[in-house]
Every structure is written in C-alpha cells, then in structure tokens.
Amino acid sequence: MDPLTRISRTVWQLAFPVGHVHLVALPDDGFALVDTGVPGSAPAVLDALARLGSHPDRLRQIVLTHCHADHMGSAADLVEATGAEVLAGAPDAPYVRGTAAEPAAVLTAAERPLHERIMADFAAAGVPPLRHVAVDRELRDGDTLDGWPEPVRVLAVPGHTPGGIALHLPASGLLFPGDVIGASPDGDRAVLGPFNVSREQAVASFRRLAALDDVGTVCVPHGGTIRENARAVLAAATPETDWR
C-alpha cells in the first residue's frame, strides 16, 4: 500500500508505522509539513516531496503539533536539508529546543503495556537518537499561519503535552488535532490519544475540538483519517473512559 495518500486538494498524508506526517501545498509552489515522524524519517519525507514534484528548498514551514519524538523526531534533519522554519506551541518550545526536560506522561494501567511495546519496537528498529532543533516561531491559541492556501487557526490543546496545538482550516473543514485525538484504523471511531501529562486537560482539549463547527476531515497522526461523518464520530467518542 502506498504510504503517500491524498487527503484533499492541497493535503497529503505520509503514513508511518508510528506518527503520520502531513504535507500541505502552499500557493507559492512551496510546502508546509505538519509533524516530521520519528528520528530517521527525513529521507522518506524528502522522497514524498519529490514525488509531488517539489524540491527540498521548497519546504517552507515545519509545524510541530507537540514535542514528542514521533512528531519532532526528524525536524532537525529536515531543517538542515531544506532551511524550513520551525513552528511549535509556546509551552512546548523549550522541550523542542532541548533547553528543558520534557515532562513525563502519567500512564494508566491500560497505557503502560502499549508504551513499553512501542519503546521496545523503537529499540528493535534502531531508531536514531532524538536531535533537538531551534523553534523560529512560538504559537499560541488564536494565532494564524501565513502563506497557506486558506486561513489556518491555531488552537491550544494542552494535556497530551503542556504546549500541544491543533490546526483548524474552517474553509475546507480540515482539522490537524495532534495526539489529542486518535482513530481506529479505518477512521470510523475516535479515541483520546494515550500517554498524557494531564489526562483531565487532554479530555477537555478533545471536547473542545469535538465541538468545532466546520470539521469534515480529521487528519489524525495515529490511526485512519476520519473522513466520513467526522462531527458525528467525534460526538460519539468517550474520551473520559478511554485507556482506563
């Protein structure tokens, strides 16, 4: 199965075993990237750009939804290859830069074996060590992104990490929720993302996103894209009881 899938007129998903990446075509023939995959993913991202007829120097922006290694893991390599600017939520920026220690998730009993398995898989796969990267712009709730094909609202969604952000594109109904929202493989069920520093905050952030108008497609980093009846799928979710 081809890991590069078109989501909309301007958005493609590059699927990875852990942590999907999304590429967004910009009006100036450049691209933006939402998250970067685990360390070592840069060659696959650059190959996806080439398949879309682009070049490394046309990657303008890297937007990190949060500081975890499966999202910021290849940012440093991609900045070196492309010169792209890096944007991240302000509270997470010190963790992305490496100037502060990332807070540990508070794992539930149900989350602990999953976390152990993922860490073991990373070790078995020889995932390279995480490299930190400079943050060029710190994002806050209510900010907008420049240069995209339509208006982009930045929403603060703390809980998974202190400075997690989501991107909402009301005109096309697209939502990039970060790890606050996960989905089943076929995208017909939404769940609270696991491994949160504050479960209570994460649930509140999930509910905030679920209440948004103008959401038709949810581009989750883990699971299948929610394409059909997205608002109903989010409304039917039970984040309060997930991962108990």
From TrEMBL:
Metallo-beta-lactamase domain sequence ranges: 18-222
Pfam families: Lactamase_B (PF00753)
Cross-referenced InterPro entries: Metallo-B-lactamas (IPR001279), NDM-1-like (IPR050855), RibonucZ/Hydroxyglut_hydro (IPR036866)
UniProt-listed PANTHER family: METALLO-BETA-LACTAMASE DOMAIN-CONTAINING (PTHR42951)
Protein name, entry field: MBL fold metallo-hydrolase
Source organism (scientific name): Streptomyces siderophoricus
